[in-house]
């Protein structure tokens, strides 16, 4: 018998006229997590998203301002959104850049934007949306707190997700303007981070990518205070965080990968967790250079550390460790000898994956005032020489994998894997590293699907990638 007083369990249909918002997310994974937060909030409030600028009632552009190319891309995207739609809200790093007369750079170039906020400003963006496109009233959704749970909306494929553990940075590297845009380090409460991680694993995430501006500094701002999670005390510190994430991941048969780790002595304590299988033996360490004088001019974190020796110790303790890094060629004052030091370092440290930028004089960066500006053509030439050496090292390292068996997380399976697939091993982070091309399974009964792990024998290399045969 039905109960006439019971609340109805079916939500009423979404109003036909729910306002639509176009969204563009540019820049790094940290920016992507800001986008996810805004999209989660928009969805929770009943806004819809539109795939095209024309089909939207308003467009939000989340910008990047890291290097000149990123600034150009951001300004062009805003221009396109204004031309196709006309109603644009801008957020993200570029939004924090000052312009003339106390305004923002974006308003100088595009005076007709509706609002501009800096990065990490979901609430300000929502306020601007409410002002310009009033919130639809949905009696069902308005009553449901946190309708999307702890994990919120993710812009990544279902099987991997970025987990941002802190915002901002306490360093002042001379080539970087991120602290002026994102402010000093603010660590998220450890309980919140672990709750989000648990929700992500429960939602099917098989690879969690930990991101921040400086992952090894997690908790410095709160003096590593003791937080609580699951009713137990846990310190706000990288070591404890990684341990807890690793244990959670183990319960779900998932991977944890660390990005933006600086070579502080404290990182030594993470290596045993890699050997124990709690976190992938992979470190993304943005070293930028090797020569101590250049590092000093760059004001790099841990610039006084003996990086080569530290890396060698890590490798001795964990031989399967993979290191990815980024470098800058042609930094102001860089001599040929200092550059040679960098080439030798990449060879000796056996950096598995390296990216390199030719130094770019980002407006507002203090490095622009350093003496000895390297001519642009020489910066480019050094970048090319660097990449040739880095690729030689990387190819040697890849070739050593032929004949081994690796676990591969499938990203794409063509025809359920009948025609092969594409995945990644522990040595490859999504978007930035290589791939493992999976050959079709020999057994007809075998299939694979995105988000599952497959064991594969590595049978060859293909450029930056490996070729694997499922076993
Ligand atoms: S560590 Fe240096 S490069 Fe990285 S965000 Fe901080 S200031 Fe910028």
TrEMBL record:
Enumerate the catalysed reactions. L-aspartate(89)-[ribosomal protein uS12]-hydrogen + (sulfur carrier)-SH + AH2 + 2 S-adenosyl-L-methionine = 3-methylsulfanyl-L-aspartate(89)-[ribosomal protein uS12]-hydrogen + (sulfur carrier)-H + 5'-deoxyadenosine + L-methionine + A + S-adenosyl-L-homocysteine + 2 H(+)
Domain called MTTase N-terminal: residue spans: 19-134
Report the locations given in the UniProt record: Cytoplasm
Cofactor(s), by name: [4Fe-4S] cluster
* EC numbers, comma separated: 2.8.4.4
List the SMART domains hit by this protein, alphabetically. Answer: Elp3
- Function per UniProt: Catalyzes the methylthiolation of an aspartic acid residue of ribosomal protein uS12.
Protein name from the UniProt record: Ribosomal protein uS12 methylthiotransferase RimO
């Amino acid at each position: 018998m039905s109960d006439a007083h019971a609340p109805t369990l079916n939500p009423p249909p979404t109003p036909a006229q729910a306002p639509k918002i176009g969204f563009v997310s540019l820049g790094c994974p940290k920016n992507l997590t800001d986008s996810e937060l805004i999209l989660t909030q928009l969805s929770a409030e009943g806004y819809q998203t539109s795939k095209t600028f024309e089909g939207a009632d308003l467009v939000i552009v989340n910008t990047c301002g890291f290097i000149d190319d990123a600034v150009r891309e951001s300004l062009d995207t805003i221009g396109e959104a204004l031309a196709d739609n006309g109603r644009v809200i801008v957020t993200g790093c570029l939004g924090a850049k000052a312009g003339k007369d106390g305004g923002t750079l974006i308003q100088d170039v595009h005076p007709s934007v509706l609002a501009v906020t800096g990065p990490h400003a979901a609430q300000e963006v929502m306020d601007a949306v409410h002002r310009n496109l009033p919130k639809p009233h949905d009696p069902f959704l308005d009553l449901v707190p946190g309708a999307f749970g702890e994990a919120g909306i993710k812009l990544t494929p279902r099987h991997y997700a970025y987990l941002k553990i802190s915002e901002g940075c306490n360093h002042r590297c001379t080539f970087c303007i991120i602290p002026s845009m994102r402010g000093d380090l603010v660590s998220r409460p450890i309980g919140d981070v672990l709750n989000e991680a648990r929700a992500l694993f429960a939602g099917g995430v098989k690879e969690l990518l930990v991101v921040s501006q400086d992952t090894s500094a997690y908790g410095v701002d709160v003096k590593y205070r003791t937080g609580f999670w699951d009713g137990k005390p846990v310190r706000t510190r990288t070591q404890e965080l990684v341990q807890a994430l690793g244990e959670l991941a183990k319960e779900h048969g998932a991977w944890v990968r660390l990005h933006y780790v600086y070579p502080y002595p404290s990182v030594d304590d993470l290596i045993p967790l890699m050997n124990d299988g709690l976190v992938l033996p992979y470190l993304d360490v943005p070293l930028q250079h090797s020569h101590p004088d250049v590092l000093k001019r760059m004001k790099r974190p841990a610039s006084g550390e003996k990086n080569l020796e530290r890396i060698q110790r890590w490798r001795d303790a964990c031989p399967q460790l993979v290191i990815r890094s980024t470098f800058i060629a042609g930094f102001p004052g860089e001599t040929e000898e200092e550059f040679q030091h960098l080439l030798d370092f990449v060879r000796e440290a056996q950096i598995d994956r390296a990216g390199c930028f030719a130094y770019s004089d980002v407006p507002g960066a203090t490095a622009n005032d350093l003496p000895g500006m390297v001519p642009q053509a020489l910066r480019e030439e050094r970048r090319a020489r660097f990449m040739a050496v880095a690729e030689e090292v990387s190819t040697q390292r890849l070739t050593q994998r032929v004949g081994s068996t690796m676990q591969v997380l499938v990203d794409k399976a063509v025809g359920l894997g009948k025609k092969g697939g594409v995945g990644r091993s522990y040595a490859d982070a999504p978007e930035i590293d290589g791939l493992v091309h999976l050959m079709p399974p020999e057994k007809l009964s075998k299939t694979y699907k995105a988000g599952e792990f497959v064991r594969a024998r590595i049978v060859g290399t293909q450029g930056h990638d490996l070729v694997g045969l499922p076993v």
